[in-house]
Amino acid sequence: MMKRLLYIAALAVMSFACKPDNGDNPIVPPDDDNPPVPENLTNLTVYGKVLDEKGEPYSGVVMTDGYSFAETDADGFYRFEKYRYASFVQCSLPSEAMITTGGTYKLPDNYYKRLTSSSKEYNFTLKRQESEKRFRILALGDPQVHSANQVSRYRQTALADIKQYVVNSEKIPTYGITLGDNVGDAWEFFPDIAGVFGEMTIPVFATIGNHDHEFPTDSDAASRKKYETVFGPSNFSFNRGDVHIVIFDNILHGARASSDYNQGYEPWQLEWLKKDLSYVPKTKSILLSVHIPLTDGEILNLLSQFGSALVICGHTHKVENTYDKTVNGKKITICAAGSTGAPWKGLILSDGCQRGYKVYEYDGTAVRREIYKSIQYEEPFQMRMFRTTDFPSYTTPNGNVFAFPYFGGEYIAVNVFNYKPGWKVVLKENGVETSSSPIQSVSYDVWARLFMYNYHNVDSDVGKNRHMLFFRVKDPKAAIRVEVTDEFGATFSCETFTTNQDIPDYDN
């Protein structure tokens, strides 16, 4: 009897944050098969218990409904007053909690439950593991499938490549994060693409993009409903090792048409982010996933308060590493990670990069290795090289001019997909390093633009990139080799030229 009274008392003093559950894991008090109901409940009270796989309390777990917050106590209990229109109760998974998958999109079993009108109690069971000092994140830009054929295409190309990459690469824990636009205004394919993510053999978390918002609907909140039915909350967080990872919806959608959106968020989202980060030690590193490359000053200010911060984005269908910001003296790395999908049906993007994904390997709070992994190519494939005379200036019927800014027999162009200012870039002629320095220019990859125009009738001035380099060679007839070394000391090279006869694979 005393144990039962202590249990009721513990529930009565709980003051935590979370969302309702379906009661899959009912709290079982000592010596009683029917758990008592806490006292002083209101219409908005939610409560529950977080246990480990042995049935022991899991303390210190941050719980939220997307508005209110609470932290589980020493007995694993939480309680809070939910927001009237909240849809989920979710936990910010600790680093010591395992994230599991099972051949389908199983992540909901790990970190959230849907609120229902019939329940106030939502319980979670987390399996403990040793915190991962080293782990890998795959940043999967814009799958953006439009049809069943493109879902199949994504499975055959992106899925197959990612599964093989995980098998071939160093055996460290690996997680995927999509960067939004999981579909291209084709919301009926949410379950299909989620099924493909479930087949990747790694946990894959989704970010919402502008094309994931349904229209026409009454509001931004209404436009997210279909997405959240499949993928769960649009704003959530979890922890791996010494890194706190946040998935954040930075799309404000007017919900009237596909183009009716801006970068932004509602005020409650910023408050949620502030509260979420308030539980994170300042020594930790933050990884933030958003869809549109981040420019918001308030969010950047929040990120600057931590040891380091990396923001991964989609949206542009390009590989870009030049969005970095310095805030409060702290450099915040912001990158657009390209696309794993088929926005123009082919296997190349408008900037000339092969479709692919970014790979970030963490050791502690720091990224110790980063690479752009092209789909259907091995890791060393990091660039394409062109003789500029193979690609003379071309003007489309609509008046768009595709041309290399440096042209002639003495110039070569190199598209280094993941290039960053400061990398060491060396030109060798007949095996001898020359003194020729690379010229970085915001320009077209003319080979890619001609392909887009000739095969897909994409006549647009969009497609210039910041990773085109040009060299003036001494002997155009010499054997040419370009070597690049990134900030982590990895060196990649290219010694073959791509010509206008090299046509990338594409899907009609």
Explain what the structure shows:
This protein is an alpha+beta fold. It folds into three domains: 2-97 and 111-124, Immunoglobulin-like (Sandwich), CATH 2.60.40; 134-374, Purple Acid Phosphatase, chain A, domain 2, CATH 3.60.21.10; 383-494, Immunoglobulin-like, CATH 2.60.40. It is 17% helix and 29% strand. The chain has helices spanning 2-12, 108-111, 148-168, 190-198, 220-231, 267-278, 297-303, 446-456, and strands spanning 45-52, 62-64, 69-71, 77-81, 88-92, 112-114, 124-126, 134-140, 174-178, 204-205, 236-240, 243-247, 251-253, 261-263, 285-289, 308-313, 319-320, 325-327, 330-337, 356-363, 366-374, 383-387, 394-395, 401-402, 411-416, 424-429, 432-433, 439-443, 465-472, 480-485, 491-494. The model is unreliable at 1-33 (pLDDT under 50).
Quick tags:
508 residues, Immunoglobulin-like, Purple Acid Phosphatase, chain A, domain 2, 17% helix, disordered N terminus
Strand content: 25-35%
Please tell me the CATH architecture of the largest domain by its name: 4-Layer Sandwich
| CATH class descriptor of the largest domain | Alpha Beta
CATH superfamily of the largest domain: Metallo-dependent phosphatases
Rounded to an integer in angstroms, the radius of gyration calculated over CA atoms is: 25 Å
Figure out the total of helices: 8
Round the mean pLDDT to the nearest integer and report it. 89
Shape: elongated
User: What share of the residues lie within helices?
Assistant: 10-25%
Quaternary structure: single chain
The N- to C-terminal Cα distance equals 72 Å
Strands, count: 31
At CATH level 3, the topology of the largest domain is Purple Acid Phosphatase, chain A, domain 2
Sheet/helix structural class: alpha+beta
> Could you describe the largest sheet, including whether it forms a barrel?
7 strands, mixed
The number of domains is 3
Uncertain residue ranges: 1-33
